[in-house]
Amino acid sequence: MQDMSSSTTADKPATDLHTGWSGRVVGYVAILILVNVMVDTVLAAPTFVLPQLSAAFDTTQFAWIDSSAMLAGAMWAPLLGKSADIYGKRKVLVITLLVAGLGGVVCLLAPHIGIFVLGRALQGAAVAALFLTVAIIRDICAPKFAMIVTGVVTSGSAVFGIPSPFILEVATEVFGWQFVFVVSATFAAVAALCVRLLIPNPRNRTPGKVDVAGALLLGGGLAGVLVYISLGQEFGWLGIVPLASLIGGAVALLVWFFVLSRIPEPVIDIRGISVALGLGLLVVVLGTGAYRSMLQLFSLLIDVSPDDGLGYGIAGPAALGLMFGIPSIGIMLGGILAGAIATRVGPAWPLAAGVVCGTAASFGMFFVGASSLPIAVVCSFMLSLTAGSLVTSGFNLASILAPPERQGTVSSMVMVMVAVGSVTMSFIGSAILGATNIVVGGETVNSSLGVHTYIAVAACAFILAAIPTVFLVRKMRGHVVSGVPMSHI
């Protein structure tokens, strides 16, 4: 990995880039937020109905139901990121929205779990929609202003997250779990139309061709390794199917690393990743993974009453809305504050603040929150602050370390880390719960040991994220905001 080159803090932006708020910019931001609302309906909304989905498809593999879209996103991201830099970000964004919408329809009509997972894989294209909105911002806004706008766009969708759990709680009781996917497909169609008609076509493009073979090999390798983590808990870590998945994934990654990553135009140029970007990606994969795993746990905790005597459970009046609605304010505040602070001290410091906040929230859940709804709501709010800060700061860090014509590719790297961390931690948590469940009254339930071990693992992930965070803060000291990329990746 190469080091950062020297940077400045006050380079003058191009005259055709937006440097402040205007009616036109507000319109662009509103549309891009709509895109990210659709992303939330794909990634977050299904967690509200995990118990119903598990019952509908007669499966205990809730991690697959929740994480299959994110897993597919890890495969989609490198290919779509490179394609966006070459063929245009708006065009690729519209395509991803249409594919995600199709996935929602497949999930809605799925007769069994296999077809449902296929639909979730198509919905995984929504993962690319998130980082493409950030890349478009970088093409139409000056560097400093883009940091603020990135915070608003990546976290602004949380405004809709405040009432949506309360609405979904009522709507799913009336219409069933299918309502979630009707909403997702509808948002995807509307967002695709708005982007195509109203968002300008960014001019920054990279001449070249897409390494489809490399993208498929990289994505397939990541998927193979992550599938092993899931299948291992059901078929045994040394079972034939899990080991075949692991070996196949590892071989694919090795071939990509030693062969296809060294061609003239690789899908991701890992040799050009700077030390600072590498550290930032490590923080993102650990921090967002821990947050997503806790989000999955919340959906299970609200289905258990503390009166059941299991040592955990936060079921109560409006528990779903409180756990997933109010903390949406935290995501919005975390993202907006991270973007604003980054214009003064750089993105490394808000990234560090997010890690500290997430660590504190995990400890709160471990000691008290697992069996107390009020404390759990506070911890969920803190974790949401963490999520907003980590995602916004991760994108801001990547954007100032990359040239304009590579924003799609570099932003996709951040999203791959988010996807890998989320899927890995969710499957690890699922394995912990599956290995420690107990039988109460003839019914298999999660044990208190499993729940608290689950939380402890998430806390450890935040603690581990603090290590590269310290080095990143030191590495970025003196580098605030750059009008030009600090490192050409």
From TrEMBL:
Subcellular location: Cell membrane
Superkingdom field: Bacteria
Domain Major facilitator superfamily (MFS) profile as annotated: residue spans: 25-477
Presence of the UniProt keyword ATP-binding in the record: no
Annotated transmembrane regions: 25-50, 62-80, 92-115, 121-138, 145-168, 174-198, 210-231, 237-260, 272-294, 314-341, 348-369, 375-402, 414-439, 451-473
Membrane topology designation: Multi-pass membrane protein
Gene3D superfamilies: MFS general substrate transporter like domains (1.20.1250.20)
Broad class of where this protein is predominantly found: membrane
Range of residues in the leader sequence: none
InterPro entries, per the entry: MFS, MFS_dom, MFS_trans_sf
UniProt GO molecular function: transmembrane transporter activity
Presence of the UniProt keyword Cell membrane in the record: no
Keyword tags: Membrane, Transmembrane, Transmembrane helix
Protein name (record): MFS transporter
